[in-house]
Amino acid sequence: MNILVAAATEMEIKPFLQYIEEKKYQKRDCTIDRLITGVGLVHTTYSLTRYLSRHQPDLIIQAGIGGSFHPFYPPGAVVIIKEEIIADAGVEEGGEFRDLFDMQLIEDALPYTGKVLTNPHYTWLDKVKLSKVTAVSVNEITTRPERIQVLQEKYGAVIESMEGAALHYVCLQENVPFLQWRAVSNFAGERDKSKWKMQEAIHHLNEQLTQFVHTLLC
Known about the structure:
single chain; about 35% helix; about 30% strand; globular
């Protein structure tokens, strides 16, 4: 089995990278490759597409931190994203946000299901014993309460990141199985960094990821 673990920054998966270096899975009948894509949808889309033009992984795991819209998922929580929505492409007019589907600039066609980029690989999703939730991807981190309310009401979003939809889009187009892991570092809109739990989120993310890979390969 060939697995790619991708992250926006090395910081987010550094403990996991240290773990696989110690285990040296490359010497077994499995390889675990890594890809640091850079932050944001554009960088992630390019990095993943370029990688897939040269390699054929059996599974891509994207791991990173994100913001939470829901009190059930406080800082430190780890979830799996079952569906993604690109939530900042569109227009704001008359006090209402209209996305590209509302404006009929994108058709409801593959890889979309409605407005959603859904992970169809239920066999892989079922292997991870974590909550499966809906997420939105944005190029600008959400800070305004009004905007947070729109994302919750319009899309039913639980988690926000800057890269998730790129993973879903590229993998759906290329027919590559994938999983997206997110650890909550903060509540969306919270700008007081003293209330963020970045290190705790990274610790829990890598702990869960390591357990999953260990169970999968051992």
